[in-house]
Every structure is written in C-alpha cells, then in structure tokens.
Design goal:
Layout: H1 3-20, E1 32-34, E2 42-45, E3 50-57, E4 64-69, E5 75-77, E6 82-85, E7 94-102, E8 106-115, E9 126-134
Parallel strand pairs: 1-3, 2-9
Antiparallel strand pairs: 3-7, 4-8, 5-7, 6-7, 8-9
C-alpha cells in the first residue's frame, strides 16, 4: 500500500467507527396496560412511558371514567378517553380506555372515577386508584 492509500484507508476506517458511535434513536417504550384487576397496585414507569387504564363503561347511562386526582407534574392525561362498544345492542356497555403519560420522576396516587360529567359535585359511583412510581 502506498502512503496515500494507507491514509485514505485510515480516514475511511475512522469515519466508519464514528458512524457506529452515533446513539441510535430508542424505540418507544411499550404502553403499560391496566384493567380493573390491577386496582390498588403499584405501577412503575419510565419518563415518557404511557399508562393505559381500560375499564368497563356504559355511556348510555351518562357515566364515564374521568381523571379525579394525581400529580400532573408526575403523570398527566393524554387526550380524551377512548370508548369501544361491547355487544352491538342498544344500552349495552363496552370498555373505556384513559391514557396517561409519565411526565417526571416521582410517586403519586392516580385516581379516576366513574361519574356523570354534568354532576361535578357528586362522588364517583366507582373509582380506580393505583400508585404510580416514575423513575
């Protein structure tokens, strides 16, 4: 190898090593999914991770799951609740999913309640609480 060829080879080698050292974008963390069976449990999340809580719901009664309490500097609701119809019959219930995104490190109790939005002072007829720990 001539001196120039060797120099070009070394430069190409260094450039290819530098390309390998670039941090690869991390794939999004998997969504953590909870159902009514996990009520009262402790859930650990990483910052940016999404917590999805899916609970039985029947909007024809006027009731819906709503955020009640939790530190929104630690975990905040993401968008509106999603409702999926169960049996295709009038008045039949389905499942409602609320999503929350981990905002920052800390611990908070997250409570959602099943209540009528037009009765803000009424207590929820059902509630779902989990302890959320963000690392």
């Amino acid at each position: 190898m001539h001196h120039t060829q060797r120099l070009v080879f070394v430069i190409v080698l260094l450039l290819s090593l530098a390309a390998c050292a670039q941090p690869q974008p991390q794939p999004p963390l998997p969504e953590v999914q909870l159902t009514e069976d996990e009520v009262g449990q402790t859930v650990e999340l990483a910052v940016g991770q999404v917590l999805a809580i899916t609970l039985p719901s029947n909007p024809s009664t006027g009731y819906a799951w709503q955020f009640i309490a939790g530190d929104d500097a630690i975990i905040a609701q993401q968008g509106e609740a999603e409702y999926v119809q169960g049996a295709n019959m009038p008045g039949a219930g389905g499942m409602e999913t609320l999503r929350f995104t981990a905002q920052g490190a800390g611990t908070t109790m997250l409570t959602i309640g099943y209540k009528r939005p037009f009765e803000p002072d009424e207590m929820p007829v059902r509630s779902f609480t989990v302890e959320v720990v963000i690392r």
